[in-house]
Amino acid sequence: MTRSTGFAETALHPRPASPWRDEVRATLRLSAPLVLINLAQHGLVASNAILLGRLGAEPVAAGALATSLYLLLFIGGIGLTSAVAPLVAEAAGSGRAGDAGEVRRTVRAGLWLGALLGAVLMPLLWHTEALLAPLGQDPAVLRDAGAYMRVLQWWMLPALAFMVLKGALAALQRPGPPLAVSLAALPLNIALGAFFAFGPPGLGIVGVALGTVVTEFLALAALILVIGRDSVLQRYRMFARLWQFDGEKLGRLVRVGAPMGVAGVAEAGLFEAATIAMGTFGTVPLAAHAVTLQIAATCFMVPNGIGQAATVRVGRALGAGDSAGLRRAGAVAIGLGLAFMLACAALQLAVPRTLIGLFLDADAPGAAAVMPVAVGFLAFSALFAVSDGVQSVALGALRGLQDTTVPMVIALTGYWGIGVPLGAALAWGAGWGGQGIWAGFCAGLLAVSILLVTRWLRLSARV
Question: What is the pTM of this model?
Answer without folding.
Answer: 0.79
